[in-house]
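G.,

No rush on this.
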Amino acid sequence: MLTYRRETEQKVWEMLDLIKRERENTVAEFRELQRWLEEQEKLLLARMEETEKEIVARRDECLAKQVEELSSLDSLIEEMEEKHQQPSSKLLQDIGRILKKYQVKKPSENPVAFPLELKWRIWDYSDISVFLKGITKQFRDTLKGGLQLQKGYTKLPLTTDLKRIRVSLNCEGGQVTFSDAETAALLYTFSEAALAGETLLPSFFLNNYACLTLAP
C-alpha cells in the first residue's frame, strides 16, 4: 500500500512538474511572438508614416508650383495693364519683351501627378494587410483546432475482442473517425478539427501493458 502511494505521488509530481515547464515554455513563446509582432508593427507603421510624409511633401510641392505660376500670371497681367496706355509701337515692343520674359518659365506638367512608386508602395501595404488577415485567421484556426483536439480526448469503448482499429481522416470536413477494421462498426467520431493544410502527427496513449502495431 505504501509502495503504491509513493509511486502514485511520484507520477503526480512528475506530471505537475511537466505541466509547469510546459506552462513556462508557452508563456515564453507567446511573449516572444508578441515582441516580434510589435517590432514588425512598428516597422510597418514607420514605413507608412514615411510614405504619408512623402505624399504630403509632393502635394505641397505641387501646390507651391501652382501658386508660383498663378503669381507669375498675375504679374504679367498687371504689367500688361500698365503698358496699354503707351503708343502702339512702344506697346508692341514692351509686349514682346514681357511675353518673352514670362515664356522662359514653363508651366508644370500635370501638377497633381504623383510618382508611380508611391502608388505601388500603397498597393504593397494593401497586400500586406490582406496577408495579415489570412495568416491571423490561419493561426487562430490552428490554435483553436489544437485546443479542441486536447479537449476532445476520449476513451474509445474497446473490448478484448477488438483486434484492429481503422482511423479515417477527413481533412476538408475536419473529422477523425475510429471504427472496427473488421466489422466497420463506428467507435467514435471527432469533429470540428482544423486539419486542412496541416501536418498530422498521430499520437496514441496505451494503459498498462497494452501494445500497439501500426498496419499500412
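When you get to it, here's the other one too:
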Amino acid sequence: MCHEFCICRAGYILNSNKTGCLKIASKLYDDCEIDDQCLTTIGCSKCGENNTCICAKGYHDVNYKCFSSIALGYRCDRNENCVTPLSECKKGICYCKEGYQRFRMQCSSSSNKMIISQLCSIFMSALIASKLYDDCEIDDQCLTTIGCSKCGENNTCICAKGYHDVNYKCFSSIALGYRCDRNENCVTPLSECKKGICYCKEGYQRFRMQCSSSSNKMIISQLCSIFMSALNLIKNDILIVFAY
C-alpha cells in the first residue's frame, strides 16, 4: 500500500538495499536472504548458508525454537538449555540425569574414579565470562553464560548482531511496528511493547521509525514536504524509494 510514502506490508521487511520487501520467517528452516527475516520473529537465529533460518552460534534447536546451549556445570533456566545428551537443568545448573555421571563434559555411566580425573582437568580450563563486558578471547567464553552474545573487537563480551544490552542482558532488537515479547525488545528510544507490538510510548508519535513529541500538525507538514519533494524528483525521471 502506498500513500505519502511506501512501506512493506505486514509480515514483510525491507531488503538490505531498501529497494524491495522480503517475507518475515515464521519458524526455523523457513527460507531467507538476510538475518533480519529470521531475527524479527525467531530469537537467537540467523539466515544460514543454505538460505534458511537456523539457530545462531551458541544456540540449538529444540522443537523449532532456539535455546542457548549450556554445558554441564553451568547456569541454566530450563531443561532445553542443557545441550549435553542425558543432561537436565536442576536448581539452575546443568547436571547429568539420575543414573548418569559426568565424564569429559559428557554424561555416562563411568566410575567415580574417572569423574574425579575429569574434575581435575576442569579446574585447568579457561575462565568463562560471567557478565557482559567481561574480558574474552573467543565467543564461547561469553556464550556459555550470556545469551545472544559474542566476543567483540575489544576482547570483551558484547551482545551479538540483532541484540542490544539492557541492564547487562542481551535482548533481541525489535523495531517499531514489529512483534515483541517484552519492553526490553523495543530498541527504539521512547518505545514499549504493547499487546505484543513495539509502539511509541504515550505522548509520543511515530515518525521515520522514531518516536517524537512533535505535534500532528508538524508531522503532517513534514510528510507533505517529503511528498512534494518526491514529485519534483519524479518529474526529473529520478526514482526515489522512501523507507519508513
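The chain has three domains: 1-67, 70-107, 134-213. The chain has a mean pLDDT of 84.

Enjoy the weekend,
O.
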